[in-house]
Amino acid sequence: MLGEDKFELARGYFSGPTQKFEKEGAWWIATGCGRGVCNKVRVVAAVNAETDEVLLAFANPYGKGPLPPTGKVSSRVPPSFSRFLAESAQSSVLKSAFNGLNVDQRLNLQRRMKELGHYRSAIDGLFGRGTATGLVAMAISTAPEYGVLPNMQNLDGAKDLVRRLLHPVIPPLDAAPGSFPFEGEWDCDGSSVTLTSRRYTLGRQGDLKIAEVVELATDIRGVTFTNGYQLAFLNITDHSMTWYSPASTDSFECHRVSGVEPDPIESAEDVADEKKYATDSIVDKKDVLDPAPVAGASLRYPFQGEWSCKEDGATDPLTKLTLTENRVDVAFMGISIEYREVTPIGRNGTAFSVALKDGQMGGIYELDDKSFLLYFSGLFLICER
To answer: Cβ–Cβ contacts within 10 Å for residue 299, how many?
Structure first.
Protein backbone atom coordinates (compact mmCIF):
# COMPACT_ATOMS: atom_id res chain seq x y z
CA MET A 1 0.00 0.00 0.00
CA LEU A 2 1.58 3.29 1.09
CA GLY A 3 4.30 1.64 3.09
CA GLU A 4 5.10 2.50 6.69
CA ASP A 5 7.41 5.43 5.90
CA LYS A 6 5.03 7.26 3.56
CA PHE A 7 2.07 6.63 5.83
CA GLU A 8 3.82 7.99 8.92
CA LEU A 9 5.01 10.99 6.90
CA ALA A 10 1.45 11.77 5.84
CA ARG A 11 0.18 11.04 9.33
CA GLY A 12 2.65 13.58 10.71
CA TYR A 13 0.58 16.40 9.27
CA PHE A 14 -2.26 15.68 11.66
CA SER A 15 -0.72 13.66 14.49
CA GLY A 16 -0.40 15.02 17.96
CA PRO A 17 -2.13 15.19 21.33
CA THR A 18 -5.14 17.07 19.93
CA GLN A 19 -5.72 14.74 16.99
CA LYS A 20 -9.35 13.80 16.28
CA PHE A 21 -11.50 12.50 13.45
CA GLU A 22 -14.86 13.89 12.36
CA LYS A 23 -17.28 12.77 9.63
CA GLU A 24 -18.18 15.35 7.00
CA GLY A 25 -20.34 13.89 4.23
CA ALA A 26 -18.44 11.08 2.54
CA TRP A 27 -15.12 12.33 3.93
CA TRP A 28 -13.36 11.73 7.19
CA ILE A 29 -11.80 14.94 8.52
CA ALA A 30 -8.63 14.50 10.54
CA THR A 31 -7.51 17.54 12.53
CA GLY A 32 -4.53 17.98 14.79
CA CYS A 33 -1.35 19.88 15.46
CA GLY A 34 1.94 18.57 14.18
CA ARG A 35 5.27 19.92 13.02
CA GLY A 36 4.61 23.13 14.89
CA VAL A 37 1.43 24.06 12.98
CA CYS A 38 -2.22 23.11 13.13
CA ASN A 39 -3.64 21.77 9.89
CA LYS A 40 -6.90 20.37 8.64
CA VAL A 41 -6.34 17.36 6.39
CA ARG A 42 -9.10 15.58 4.46
CA VAL A 43 -8.79 11.80 4.45
CA VAL A 44 -10.78 9.14 2.59
CA ALA A 45 -10.36 5.36 2.61
CA ALA A 46 -12.23 3.02 0.24
CA VAL A 47 -12.21 -0.77 0.11
CA ASN A 48 -13.09 -2.76 -3.02
CA ALA A 49 -14.85 -5.86 -1.69
CA GLU A 50 -14.20 -7.82 -4.90
CA THR A 51 -10.46 -7.16 -5.23
CA ASP A 52 -9.56 -6.23 -1.62
CA GLU A 53 -7.83 -3.13 -3.00
CA VAL A 54 -7.66 -0.28 -0.51
CA LEU A 55 -7.31 3.28 -1.76
CA LEU A 56 -6.22 6.06 0.55
CA ALA A 57 -6.37 9.76 -0.37
CA PHE A 58 -5.29 12.88 1.48
CA ALA A 59 -6.37 16.41 0.58
CA ASN A 60 -3.35 18.68 0.50
CA PRO A 61 -4.04 21.54 2.96
CA TYR A 62 -1.62 23.76 1.04
CA GLY A 63 -2.74 22.81 -2.48
CA LYS A 64 -5.82 23.43 -4.61
CA GLY A 65 -7.34 19.97 -4.52
CA PRO A 66 -7.17 16.49 -3.07
CA LEU A 67 -4.16 14.33 -3.69
CA PRO A 68 -4.93 11.37 -5.97
CA PRO A 69 -5.69 8.00 -4.36
CA THR A 70 -2.52 5.99 -4.01
CA GLY A 71 -1.47 2.45 -3.33
CA LYS A 72 -2.96 -1.05 -3.51
CA VAL A 73 -2.96 -3.90 -1.04
CA SER A 74 -0.64 -6.59 -2.38
CA SER A 75 0.03 -8.25 0.96
CA ARG A 76 -1.21 -8.17 4.54
CA VAL A 77 -2.59 -4.78 5.60
CA PRO A 78 0.13 -2.79 7.43
CA PRO A 79 -0.55 -2.25 11.15
CA SER A 80 -0.48 1.52 10.67
CA PHE A 81 -3.35 1.39 8.20
CA SER A 82 -5.32 -0.80 10.58
CA ARG A 83 -4.81 1.86 13.23
CA PHE A 84 -6.05 4.50 10.83
CA LEU A 85 -9.19 2.52 9.96
CA ALA A 86 -9.93 1.84 13.62
CA GLU A 87 -9.77 5.55 14.34
CA SER A 88 -11.93 6.33 11.31
CA ALA A 89 -14.64 3.80 12.14
CA GLN A 90 -17.37 4.96 14.46
CA SER A 91 -15.92 3.93 17.81
CA SER A 92 -19.29 4.22 19.55
CA VAL A 93 -20.91 1.86 17.02
CA LEU A 94 -18.19 -0.78 17.37
CA LYS A 95 -18.35 -0.42 21.14
CA SER A 96 -22.12 -1.00 21.20
CA ALA A 97 -21.80 -4.09 19.00
CA PHE A 98 -18.89 -5.54 21.01
CA ASN A 99 -20.57 -4.88 24.37
CA GLY A 100 -23.71 -6.56 23.04
CA LEU A 101 -21.87 -9.89 23.32
CA ASN A 102 -21.85 -11.79 26.58
CA VAL A 103 -18.67 -11.86 28.70
CA ASP A 104 -17.42 -15.22 27.41
CA GLN A 105 -17.95 -14.15 23.79
CA ARG A 106 -16.04 -10.90 24.32
CA LEU A 107 -13.12 -12.74 25.92
CA ASN A 108 -13.08 -15.39 23.17
CA LEU A 109 -13.12 -12.73 20.45
CA GLN A 110 -10.16 -10.92 22.01
CA ARG A 111 -8.28 -14.24 22.31
CA ARG A 112 -8.90 -14.97 18.64
CA MET A 113 -7.75 -11.50 17.61
CA LYS A 114 -4.60 -12.01 19.68
CA GLU A 115 -3.90 -15.43 18.14
CA LEU A 116 -4.14 -13.87 14.67
CA GLY A 117 -1.80 -11.00 15.61
CA HIS A 118 -4.44 -8.26 15.59
CA TYR A 119 -4.57 -7.54 19.34
CA ARG A 120 -1.83 -6.89 21.90
CA SER A 121 -3.73 -5.63 24.95
CA ALA A 122 -5.06 -7.56 27.94
CA ILE A 123 -7.75 -10.22 27.52
CA ASP A 124 -10.30 -8.45 29.71
CA GLY A 125 -13.51 -8.32 27.66
CA LEU A 126 -13.42 -4.51 27.74
CA PHE A 127 -13.69 -2.27 24.69
CA GLY A 128 -10.85 0.14 24.05
CA ARG A 129 -8.64 1.41 21.26
CA GLY A 130 -6.84 -1.93 20.98
CA THR A 131 -10.10 -3.84 20.59
CA ALA A 132 -11.38 -1.37 17.98
CA THR A 133 -8.15 -1.68 16.02
CA GLY A 134 -8.22 -5.48 16.26
CA LEU A 135 -11.82 -5.75 15.07
CA VAL A 136 -11.15 -3.67 11.97
CA ALA A 137 -7.84 -5.38 11.20
CA MET A 138 -9.37 -8.84 11.51
CA ALA A 139 -12.36 -7.77 9.41
CA ILE A 140 -10.02 -6.82 6.58
CA SER A 141 -7.81 -9.90 6.83
CA THR A 142 -10.78 -12.31 6.89
CA ALA A 143 -12.86 -10.54 4.22
CA PRO A 144 -11.84 -13.01 1.46
CA GLU A 145 -13.10 -15.93 3.61
CA TYR A 146 -16.49 -14.39 4.27
CA GLY A 147 -16.85 -12.52 0.97
CA VAL A 148 -18.21 -9.30 2.47
CA LEU A 149 -16.66 -6.45 4.44
CA PRO A 150 -19.55 -5.02 6.49
CA ASN A 151 -20.19 -1.33 6.98
CA MET A 152 -18.75 -0.63 10.41
CA GLN A 153 -20.17 2.88 10.61
CA ASN A 154 -23.69 1.71 11.46
CA LEU A 155 -24.86 -0.54 14.26
CA ASP A 156 -26.26 -3.30 12.02
CA GLY A 157 -22.96 -3.60 10.16
CA ALA A 158 -20.97 -3.62 13.39
CA LYS A 159 -23.21 -6.31 14.90
CA ASP A 160 -22.80 -8.39 11.75
CA LEU A 161 -19.04 -8.00 12.04
CA VAL A 162 -18.67 -9.15 15.64
CA ARG A 163 -21.10 -12.06 15.13
CA ARG A 164 -19.17 -13.13 12.05
CA LEU A 165 -15.78 -12.94 13.72
CA LEU A 166 -17.03 -15.04 16.63
CA HIS A 167 -17.46 -18.00 14.27
CA PRO A 168 -14.34 -18.48 12.14
CA VAL A 169 -14.67 -20.20 8.80
CA ILE A 170 -13.39 -23.77 9.04
CA PRO A 171 -11.32 -24.54 5.93
CA PRO A 172 -12.67 -27.35 3.74
CA LEU A 173 -10.92 -30.71 3.71
CA ASP A 174 -8.82 -31.45 0.64
CA ALA A 175 -9.13 -35.24 0.61
CA ALA A 176 -8.63 -37.52 -2.39
CA PRO A 177 -11.57 -39.61 -3.71
CA GLY A 178 -11.80 -42.97 -1.96
CA SER A 179 -10.39 -41.69 1.34
CA PHE A 180 -13.47 -42.64 3.41
CA PRO A 181 -15.72 -45.72 3.57
CA PHE A 182 -18.94 -43.66 3.58
CA GLU A 183 -18.42 -42.28 0.06
CA GLY A 184 -21.24 -43.11 -2.33
CA GLU A 185 -24.94 -42.61 -2.97
CA TRP A 186 -27.25 -43.76 -0.17
CA ASP A 187 -30.95 -44.21 0.46
CA CYS A 188 -31.48 -43.14 4.09
CA ASP A 189 -35.04 -44.08 5.09
CA GLY A 190 -36.31 -42.79 1.76
CA SER A 191 -34.07 -39.71 1.49
CA SER A 192 -31.26 -39.49 -1.05
CA VAL A 193 -27.82 -38.78 0.45
CA THR A 194 -24.65 -38.30 -1.61
CA LEU A 195 -21.24 -38.34 0.07
CA THR A 196 -17.87 -37.69 -1.54
CA SER A 197 -14.49 -37.17 0.08
CA ARG A 198 -15.27 -33.45 0.30
CA ARG A 199 -19.04 -32.92 0.21
CA TYR A 200 -22.35 -34.04 1.68
CA THR A 201 -25.66 -33.57 -0.14
CA LEU A 202 -29.12 -34.39 1.19
CA GLY A 203 -31.72 -34.60 -1.59
CA ARG A 204 -31.72 -31.42 -3.66
CA GLN A 205 -30.41 -29.22 -0.87
CA GLY A 206 -27.16 -27.33 -1.24
CA ASP A 207 -23.89 -29.11 -0.56
CA LEU A 208 -22.18 -29.04 2.82
CA LYS A 209 -18.38 -28.97 2.56
CA ILE A 210 -16.52 -31.40 4.81
CA ALA A 211 -13.92 -29.83 7.13
CA GLU A 212 -12.82 -32.83 9.22
CA VAL A 213 -13.32 -36.60 9.37
CA VAL A 214 -12.41 -38.47 12.57
CA GLU A 215 -12.12 -42.27 12.79
CA LEU A 216 -13.92 -43.07 16.05
CA ALA A 217 -13.80 -46.82 15.40
CA THR A 218 -13.11 -49.11 12.46
CA ASP A 219 -16.70 -48.73 11.23
CA ILE A 220 -17.53 -45.28 12.67
CA ARG A 221 -16.65 -41.85 11.27
CA GLY A 222 -17.40 -38.45 12.81
CA VAL A 223 -17.77 -35.64 10.27
CA THR A 224 -17.56 -31.88 10.91
CA PHE A 225 -18.60 -29.46 8.16
CA THR A 226 -17.22 -25.99 7.42
CA ASN A 227 -20.23 -24.35 9.10
CA GLY A 228 -19.67 -26.32 12.33
CA TYR A 229 -22.51 -28.82 11.81
CA GLN A 230 -21.64 -32.41 12.77
CA LEU A 231 -22.84 -35.89 11.82
CA ALA A 232 -21.71 -39.42 12.58
CA PHE A 233 -21.88 -42.47 10.32
CA LEU A 234 -22.10 -45.73 12.29
CA ASN A 235 -21.74 -49.42 11.45
CA ILE A 236 -20.38 -48.64 7.99
CA THR A 237 -20.20 -51.62 5.61
CA ASP A 238 -20.02 -51.92 1.85
CA HIS A 239 -23.81 -52.00 1.70
CA SER A 240 -25.23 -50.14 4.71
CA MET A 241 -24.61 -47.66 7.53
CA THR A 242 -26.50 -45.60 10.13
CA TRP A 243 -26.82 -41.81 9.76
CA TYR A 244 -26.73 -40.14 13.21
CA SER A 245 -27.05 -36.53 14.43
CA PRO A 246 -25.31 -36.01 17.82
CA ALA A 247 -27.31 -32.82 18.42
CA SER A 248 -30.81 -34.24 17.90
CA THR A 249 -30.06 -37.97 18.40
CA ASP A 250 -32.03 -38.61 15.18
CA SER A 251 -30.85 -41.68 13.26
CA PHE A 252 -31.68 -43.18 9.87
CA GLU A 253 -30.78 -46.52 8.32
CA CYS A 254 -28.97 -46.07 5.01
CA HIS A 255 -28.49 -48.53 2.15
CA ARG A 256 -25.93 -47.96 -0.57
CA VAL A 257 -27.38 -47.25 -4.00
CA SER A 258 -24.10 -46.90 -5.89
CA GLY A 259 -20.59 -45.55 -5.72
CA VAL A 260 -20.00 -41.89 -6.40
CA GLU A 261 -17.98 -39.98 -8.96
CA PRO A 262 -15.19 -37.71 -7.69
CA ASP A 263 -16.01 -34.04 -7.13
CA PRO A 264 -15.68 -32.03 -10.35
CA ILE A 265 -13.36 -29.03 -10.36
CA GLU A 266 -15.52 -25.93 -10.04
CA SER A 267 -15.00 -23.14 -12.52
CA ALA A 268 -15.74 -19.49 -11.83
CA GLU A 269 -18.86 -19.87 -13.98
CA ASP A 270 -20.03 -22.82 -11.87
CA VAL A 271 -19.68 -20.82 -8.67
CA ALA A 272 -21.54 -17.89 -10.20
CA ASP A 273 -24.32 -20.17 -11.43
CA GLU A 274 -24.80 -21.57 -7.92
CA LYS A 275 -25.54 -18.08 -6.64
CA LYS A 276 -28.20 -17.34 -9.27
CA TYR A 277 -31.84 -18.04 -8.64
CA ALA A 278 -35.09 -17.19 -10.35
CA THR A 279 -37.32 -14.45 -8.93
CA ASP A 280 -40.55 -15.05 -10.82
CA SER A 281 -42.10 -16.89 -7.87
CA ILE A 282 -41.22 -14.18 -5.33
CA VAL A 283 -44.21 -11.95 -4.70
CA ASP A 284 -44.97 -9.10 -2.35
CA LYS A 285 -46.88 -10.02 0.77
CA LYS A 286 -49.67 -7.63 -0.14
CA ASP A 287 -50.38 -9.64 -3.29
CA VAL A 288 -50.85 -12.93 -1.40
CA LEU A 289 -54.01 -13.77 0.51
CA ASP A 290 -54.10 -16.50 3.12
CA PRO A 291 -57.00 -18.92 2.89
CA ALA A 292 -59.46 -18.47 5.73
CA PRO A 293 -58.57 -20.76 8.65
CA VAL A 294 -60.87 -23.66 9.31
CA ALA A 295 -61.83 -24.16 12.94
CA GLY A 296 -60.42 -27.39 14.32
CA ALA A 297 -58.49 -28.16 11.14
CA SER A 298 -55.13 -29.90 11.66
CA LEU A 299 -51.91 -28.45 10.27
CA ARG A 300 -50.57 -29.83 7.04
CA TYR A 301 -46.96 -29.58 8.29
CA PRO A 302 -45.78 -29.56 11.93
CA PHE A 303 -43.44 -26.62 11.26
CA GLN A 304 -46.24 -24.21 10.36
CA GLY A 305 -46.34 -21.02 12.44
CA GLU A 306 -44.36 -17.89 13.24
CA TRP A 307 -40.69 -18.29 14.13
CA SER A 308 -37.83 -16.04 15.22
CA CYS A 309 -34.47 -17.22 13.81
CA LYS A 310 -30.95 -16.28 14.87
CA GLU A 311 -27.39 -17.47 14.37
CA ASP A 312 -25.84 -19.63 17.09
CA GLY A 313 -24.36 -17.38 19.76
CA ALA A 314 -26.13 -14.23 18.53
CA THR A 315 -28.22 -12.23 20.98
CA ASP A 316 -30.54 -10.64 18.44
CA PRO A 317 -32.76 -12.45 15.90
CA LEU A 318 -31.58 -12.38 12.30
CA THR A 319 -35.10 -12.56 10.86
CA LYS A 320 -38.68 -13.63 11.51
CA LEU A 321 -40.27 -16.33 9.38
CA THR A 322 -43.88 -17.33 8.92
CA LEU A 323 -44.25 -20.86 7.54
CA THR A 324 -47.68 -21.69 6.15
CA GLU A 325 -48.93 -24.82 4.38
CA ASN A 326 -47.82 -23.49 0.98
CA ARG A 327 -45.19 -20.74 1.41
CA VAL A 328 -42.65 -18.97 3.63
CA ASP A 329 -42.92 -15.27 4.49
CA VAL A 330 -39.58 -13.54 5.18
CA ALA A 331 -40.29 -10.51 7.36
CA PHE A 332 -37.22 -8.34 6.90
CA MET A 333 -37.27 -8.78 3.09
CA GLY A 334 -41.04 -8.33 2.85
CA ILE A 335 -41.44 -11.25 0.43
CA SER A 336 -43.24 -14.57 0.22
CA ILE A 337 -41.89 -17.64 -1.60
CA GLU A 338 -44.08 -20.62 -2.38
CA TYR A 339 -43.03 -24.22 -1.74
CA ARG A 340 -42.44 -26.41 -4.76
CA GLU A 341 -42.06 -29.58 -2.73
CA VAL A 342 -41.85 -30.56 0.95
CA THR A 343 -40.25 -33.95 1.63
CA PRO A 344 -40.00 -35.61 5.08
CA ILE A 345 -36.51 -36.82 5.99
CA GLY A 346 -36.76 -40.16 7.75
CA ARG A 347 -39.83 -41.32 9.65
CA ASN A 348 -39.60 -39.35 12.88
CA GLY A 349 -41.39 -36.22 11.65
CA THR A 350 -38.55 -34.03 12.95
CA ALA A 351 -36.79 -33.20 9.68
CA PHE A 352 -37.97 -31.92 6.29
CA SER A 353 -36.41 -30.94 2.98
CA VAL A 354 -38.13 -27.87 1.51
CA ALA A 355 -37.74 -26.94 -2.18
CA LEU A 356 -38.90 -23.41 -3.02
CA LYS A 357 -40.31 -22.31 -6.36
CA ASP A 358 -37.48 -19.81 -6.85
CA GLY A 359 -35.00 -22.71 -7.00
CA GLN A 360 -33.62 -22.42 -3.48
CA MET A 361 -33.46 -25.35 -1.07
CA GLY A 362 -33.81 -25.43 2.69
CA GLY A 363 -33.70 -28.01 5.44
CA ILE A 364 -35.59 -28.17 8.74
CA TYR A 365 -33.99 -30.37 11.41
CA GLU A 366 -34.54 -31.34 15.06
CA LEU A 367 -38.11 -30.01 14.95
CA ASP A 368 -40.19 -29.97 18.13
CA ASP A 369 -43.06 -27.81 19.41
CA LYS A 370 -40.79 -24.92 20.37
CA SER A 371 -37.79 -24.87 18.03
CA PHE A 372 -35.92 -26.29 15.03
CA LEU A 373 -32.63 -25.89 13.16
CA LEU A 374 -32.90 -24.26 9.74
CA TYR A 375 -30.30 -24.82 7.02
CA PHE A 376 -30.65 -22.23 4.27
CA SER A 377 -28.19 -20.56 1.88
CA GLY A 378 -25.20 -22.04 3.68
CA LEU A 379 -26.35 -20.86 7.13
CA PHE A 380 -27.53 -22.83 10.12
CA LEU A 381 -30.06 -20.83 12.15
CA ILE A 382 -31.80 -21.63 15.41
CA CYS A 383 -35.53 -20.87 15.10
CA GLU A 384 -37.85 -20.53 18.08
CA ARG A 385 -41.63 -20.31 18.01
So the answer is: 11
